[in-house]
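Posting for a labmate who doesn't have an account.
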Amino acid sequence: MNLKVEILLVLVFFSVIVLNKLLWKKERNYNNILIIVMCICTAINVKIGSAQPYFDESRSLYIPLAVFVIAIVAITTIKYNSIKVTFDQIILLIILLSILLSYNNGQIKDMSKFCSIVALYLSIFFIGLIYKNLREYNLKRVLDVFSYMAIFNGCLSIVQYITNKKLLIGVFNDTLNYGTGVNIVKRVVGIAGSSNAAGNLGALLFSITLFNYLRTKKKIHLFAFIVNGIFLGLTLTRIGYLAAFVEVVIFLLFSGWHISKTVKKRSVVSWSIFTVLILGLTCGKKIYSVLFSQRGNTTTSRYNQYYNVFKRIMPNNTFWNGIGVGQYRYYSFQYQKRLVIDIHSQYLNVLAEQGMFIFILFIILNVYIFIKALYNTENRLEKAFVISLFIGNLICCNFNPNQYYTINNLLYYLLMYCYVYKSSKNIGATSGMIKIKLLNIIDYLKKKVRMHITRKA
């Protein structure tokens, strides 16, 4: 880490302290989440190490600025009552301890991938800590922030498509062209940085923007939903489309969502199936050409990965250890003499690189967070949102190398933990209900007083 980076991080650290202690008194909780989301939108990566040989190329160590900001916000807003360690934090500490042990055992050779995954686990830990510190955050306003994120990302993707450039810091002039030879397509990346990561991001934003619109019926959220839909379409990520479709089905089944008073859910589903069939019959060849022939069909390579993990790697692993965090490509090249791509499944990657014990803990962690978030929902719409977010992320992260998509993971856990630590003290979720109840009590008392005065008269 060079001097400029150290100065930048020190400035960010003291700026957050000053803002929290002096300027952010009334809106402190909301503004801390806002600054994290803004840092995610900048898509700035901080170089923390010099270039290292990586197969046939040289790769430097980069960590997203948002990861540092999350850590800084967590540290600067910590409260004594949040020091008590929760179940999810215990799991994360065990996972981080196992990673430290694998590093000390000399398993780590690919430092770039290793640092990326370590940053991910630390971010999850700090996100939970932030929401625990900011217990009385305004839920509704925090959720609104993610619609603004979707608008920024969607508008950026449209400009990317028009200019055929990524327009991100560090890769500003890089092209969006994907493929080789005549089979080249244009796939937008948004703030995610890569096309597959963009598809996962679009699926996550699809759930929150749809929820925000159904929750508020405001045009700004409808605009966010439409713009994000355009972004998702331009990514040409098939698994993102599938996740979005499943999310819509979940909202239809669980939320009590009625498109109109005269339209039934069965009619919506029937017309949707009919529309898909018509598109398939009329434009099927064109769609297949764009999504498979030109974009590339990677199904076979995914199955090859599954075979490699279960037949060649798992038999050599112990229950407690894997091949090392972020070491799949290095291990395959060094010991199997095979040049492979990253495992296109976050859960399978944990199993191969960290062993069965951490794999089980990782599943328990995510199920625990999901159940806690679901338990804290207040109505059917909120339940549908939490379920759709969990299922949508589960689909995306098991068909793409989501373990290295830091922005997507940050977004997912920011949204899930938003409900995990939602409580009766939460201003945004309950203030309206409390006001209504208080007004009803006051009206009731006024009537009783008037009746008492009338009787005496």
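Reply:
Got it, the structure tokens are right above this. Strands lie at 45-54, 57-64, 177-180, 183-186.
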